Amino acid sequence: MSTPLDLEARAHSEHAQSLRLWLRLLTCSQLVEKRVRTGLREQFDTTLPRFDLMAQLERHPEGLKMKELSHRLMVTGGNVTGITDQLVGEGLVERMAVDGDRRAFLVRLTPRGHQQFADMARQHEDWIVEAFEGLSPREIDGLHKLLGKVKQHQLALNQRQADTADSE
């Protein structure tokens, strides 16, 4: 049985162990994301970007301005507008005017949107739990701690880079 080609297939034994680890992390992330995307499409007839937008609104029941949604999702305003238009059309989110700013809109989940998101979020959690069933709780905890160290180191590197750029 042949294994499907993935990012890890690019790594060879002569590559640094850190590079091989990076490619493994990317491959794992892509495989889990593919499972989530497929599940959202098949079970809820939706996409990951729509799920992500609804997740942001779930965290902010008072709603978010379109600009803030765009910033939080790290996508262009046009992308957020397109997804929001679809969700408004389906009655899952609503736009409201912002007092004192005629150009801004606040977006929030409707009651129907809250219910649909809750259903999707429960299933999403199940997919993620399933993705890590091959590990023991101790292994999951250890991996979480190790990745936390990688995260902290990268944040420190990014800060140093930003400080250097500011001083130039």
First-to-last CA distance: 55 Å
Specify the overall morphology: globular
The major pleated sheet works out as: 3 strands, antiparallel
How confident is the prediction overall: mean pLDDT? 91
Point out poorly predicted stretches: none
Number of helical regions: 6
CATH topology of the largest domain: Arc Repressor Mutant, subunit A
Q: Name the helicity range.
A: 55-70%
Please indicate the percent range of residues in DSSP E strands (runs of 2 or more): 5-15%
Going by helix content, strand content and strand pairing, the class is mainly alpha
CATH superfamily of the largest domain: Winged helix-like DNA-binding domain superfamily/Winged helix DNA-binding domain
- The appropriate CATH architecture of the largest domain is Orthogonal Bundle
Order of strands, main sheet, comes to 1-3-2
Question: How would you characterize the overall build of this protein?
Answer:
With 168 residues, this protein is mainly alpha-helical. It folds into 2 domains: 16-134, Arc Repressor Mutant, subunit A, CATH 1.10.10.10; 137-168. Helices cover 67% and strands 10% of the residues. It is built from 6 helices and 3 strands; from the N terminus they run H-H-E-H-H-E-E-H-H. It has helices spanning 17-44, 48-59, 66-73, 77-89, 111-131, 137-167, and strands at residues 64-65, 93-98, 101-109. A 3-stranded antiparallel β-sheet has the order 1-3-2. The longest helix is centred in the C-terminal third of the chain and has 31 residues, at 137-167. The termini are far apart.
